[in-house]
Predict the structure.
Amino acid sequence: MHLKNLVSFIEKKESRRNTVKFIFLISLTAIIAFSLMSCKKEKIVEKEVLTNVRVSTSVKKNIRPYIETTGTLTADEEVTVSSEVDGIVRSVRVEEGSAVGKGTLLAEVNDIDYALDEKRAQAALKQAQANLTNVKAEFQRKEALFKEELITQQQFDDISTRVALAEADLAKAKATLDTARERLARTKIYSPLRAMVKEKRVSVGDYVRTSMPLFQLIKVDRLKLNFTVGEKELADLKTSQEVDFTVDSFPGRKFKGTVHLLYPHLEERTRTLQAEAVVVNAENLLKP
């Protein structure tokens, strides 16, 4: 190769190297610049994201329908206790507001006349028993005579009739004594259930007659909560649901009940439904 050509080749090769170096430097500079810009942009983005994120724990909850209304507490059971005999009230053992148990003595009616009736009935029973004993003895004697044909058929029939009458008299005497004893027992008036005395209508010395109301008793260990709901809320109300309620006498305190009755029809004028819940009142805090 000629010297001129060699120099030209070397110059071209050197020029190509410089061009490659220049391109490489430009590329490297561009990559570094792009990397710096990317890092800066990532930092800015990261900063913006972190600034606006709030972390909270995920909680699963059941949201129940909420119905607010007003209602009235009433006694689960109300009983009128009446006199079962005529007479003058001898004693009254309870007052209004008294708590009574089943079988608690409430009042007494003068029992003198009824005690005398019982004694007379006892005497009549003894007489009837004695009469039947005598008639049966006579029947046995005449039965033997009749078998021996010593008395007539009519005589035997007569004694048989007397036995039947004596047995009927004895049964009647027993029934009379039972009635006398029952009337004597009814001079004492007892509570038929565990309850509270709502109303006392009698005092000592009053004359009372059979079926005359003397006491009004209410059962308060279980109460009824009567309330109404609107037509639009019916889908959210079912029997056996629990209800929470408050009363003015215990502000801030919640009591619970269970829905047990939904009336079958709406009130025509207001388009509301009457409902009823049962409330356990074991501590007798709530008053109807």
User: Anything to note?
Assistant: The radius of gyration is 52 Å. The helical segments are 3-52, 112-147, 153-185.
